[in-house]
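Chapter review. Work through the record for 45 kDa calcium-binding protein before attempting the end-of-chapter questions.
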Amino acid sequence: IFNVLEENLLSLSLLVCLLLHTWIVNARPANMSAAKEKTPVSKDENEILPPDHLNGVKMEMDGHLNKDFHQEVFLGKDMEEFEEDSEPRRNRKKLIEIFTKVDLNKDRSISAKEMQRWIMEKTAEHFQEATMENKNSFHAVDPDGDGHVTWDEYRIKFLASKGFNEKEMAEKIKNNEDLKLDDDTQDVLESLKDRWFQADNPPGDQLLNEEEFLSFLHPEHSRGMLKYMVKEIVRDLDQDSDKKLTLSEFISLPTGTVENQQAQEIDDDWVRERKKEFEEIMDANHDGIVTMEELEEYMDPMNEHNALNEAKQMIAVADENQNRNLELDEILKYSEYFTGSKLMDYARNVHEEF
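Structure tokens for 45 kDa calcium-binding protein:
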């Protein structure tokens, strides 16, 4: 009897293992299912939609601080070379090469003026990248190559990138018919339309050329669109509608409740970081209020005064000997701040390699 029971239990165990294996292979983790079921962003959509993130700009379109700003203005187009999983020795060598380039007078230290010049140069690289990408994006919405794009032409391409039938949408728009869009798509379209007409330089003809289309995708390239970007950010953060920002408005936490101690600490860091940025940098005259003009100056990536302040701030982070300059061992020690990549062996043979 015991032998029979043992054989039955063994068979049952094998069956359970087989079923479990099948379930693991075919099942998806619950927290991954939503992401898998979302329609992936198409290449066309990436080309013609304004990017959520602008390299070399201190603030995001949604009013959050750009957490990668220091790396962007220090590394420029070389950002991808400093991946988290890249080889530390190679990163170390690359960082030493950058140090020698920034050190213009070859005195083995980086001054604020030298860092300012470097920041402006790296920001210009981001501008050049955006300009080159814009050529491809403009071609995607201007297939006939006449050098101009109407709003209707653009929204047909946009809707096609969202999965709508391009010919059907073109026909409906031509006949002024109801497009029957879902609320989310309609909201995005309305926001894009406002942005489109802002990018249309006077006298407005409702057509965008390649330069205007660059401003549409990258508002940091145009003073007028930079003003529009600032206006949108203030509108979202300004609680009393006075078109200015107070400290309390700028550090107000997003809607939601803190669920645990870890979330509370993250929120505390978020508030502390924004408070420091508001008081020390954004509020230029230190009157407790950031006006649209102050925010515009703060957001302008090609503002030389901002670049100098940023240079001083970056040096201060790593300036352990307090000489207001940056030495090679300091920049290697604080590599994570400058590149996002931590070099564990920064102190080994620094001066020898240099």
